[in-house]
């Protein structure tokens, strides 16, 4: 196991543990206001301090973790669930009208920045975590479609695929039984990367008010609330900012470590 894989797994596990633990325990009620205790810096009672309403930041970070993870996880699931079959179909019908339709649709989505598309979709559908999931998930579809198609094309000319075709197997059956298992490692790595991007996208949407809505805590909205108080309460921005940085860093390291671990060529190079 590489250093990146271990460090990424540790950071990601800590964030996941905080999210799971928040379902049964937080140091304080994340929505409880305590005006006399507002804007406290980290101390023995409030480990990460309090915000301008006296709410405990640690409790908000823990609950916000499950919001970010849930949005990113479902969005990646949407992207993978729709994008992988499209990529397999495009590879199986290379050069056909179906291939052209799928790939030109991908190009259309890629012509616009992901966050702009997400903002447009949530602006039309309305603010909220569900619409944020839809917006992020839609952008993930062409990512997985293109990755899957590229990997599958290199397999369609392999001998074991030719043998399956000679045996009379259909393109759909070959894609499911032979192509998909051989590209799964690549999809797992890409899924980890898209998961980290989903965390960032959710934070960005929440920052502009289009993500999870109050009273549900969100790291992005915590940053937005803190921007006018940075000069006298910098911890309000540092706490959610570090949560986002460490989460994305952990997931990127995890993805990089998984790539090194799952790619046989890289294992041989390291040996």
UniProtKB/TrEMBL annotation:
Gene3D superfamilies assigned: MetI-like (1.10.3720.10)
Limits of the ABC transmembrane type-1 domain: 65-255
PROSITE patterns: ABC_TM1
Transmembrane portions of the chain: 6-28, 69-92, 112-139, 183-212, 232-255
Entry keywords, A to Z: Cell membrane, Membrane, Transmembrane, Transmembrane helix, Transport
Membrane topology: Multi-pass membrane protein
Alphabetical list of SUPFAM superfamilies matching this protein: MetI-like (SSF161098)
InterPro entries listed in its UniProt record: BP-dependent_transpt_permease (IPR050366), MetI-like (IPR000515), MetI-like_sf (IPR035906)
Location relative to the cell: Cell membrane
Lineage: superkingdom: Bacteria
Pfam families referenced in this protein's UniProt entry, alphabetically: BPD_transp_1 (PF00528)
Main location (coarse class): membrane
Family recorded in the similarity comment: Belongs to the binding-protein-dependent transport system permease family.
Protein name, per record: ABC transporter permease
Source organism: Leisingera daeponensis
């Amino acid at each position: 196991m590489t250093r990146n894989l271990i460090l990424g797994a540790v950071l990601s596990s800590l964030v996941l543990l905080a999210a799971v633990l928040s379902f049964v325990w937080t140091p304080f009620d994340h929505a409880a206001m305590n005006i006399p205790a507002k804007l406290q810096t980290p101390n023995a009672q409030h480990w990460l301090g309090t915000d301008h309403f006296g709410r405990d930041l640690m409790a908000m970070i823990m609950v916000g973790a499950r919001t970010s993870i849930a949005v990113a996880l479902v969005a990646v699931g949407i992207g993978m669930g729709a994008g992988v079959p499209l990529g397999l179909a495009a590879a199986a019908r290379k050069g056909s009208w179906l291939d052209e339709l799928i790939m030109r649709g991908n190009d259309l989505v890629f012509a616009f920045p992901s966050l702009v598309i997400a903002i447009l979709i949530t602006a039309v559908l309305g603010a909220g975590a569900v619409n944020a999931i839809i917006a992020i998930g839609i952008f993930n579809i062409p990512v997985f479609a293109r990755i899957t198609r590229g990997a599958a094309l290199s397999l369609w000319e392999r001998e074991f695929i030719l043998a399956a075709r000679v045996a009379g197997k259909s393109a759909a059956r070959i894609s499911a039984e032979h192509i998909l298992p051989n590209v799964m490692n690549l999809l797992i790595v890409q899924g980890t990367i898209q998961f980290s991007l989903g965390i960032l996208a959710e934070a960005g949407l929440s920052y502009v008010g289009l993500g999870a809505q109050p009273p549900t805590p969100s790291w992005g909205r915590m940053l937005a609330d803190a921007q006018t108080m940075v000069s006298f309460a910098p911890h309000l921005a540092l706490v959610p900012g570090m949560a986002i940085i460490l989460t994305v860093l952990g997931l990127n390291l995890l993805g990089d470590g998984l790539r090194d671990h799952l790619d046989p060529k890289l294992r041989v190079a390291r040996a």
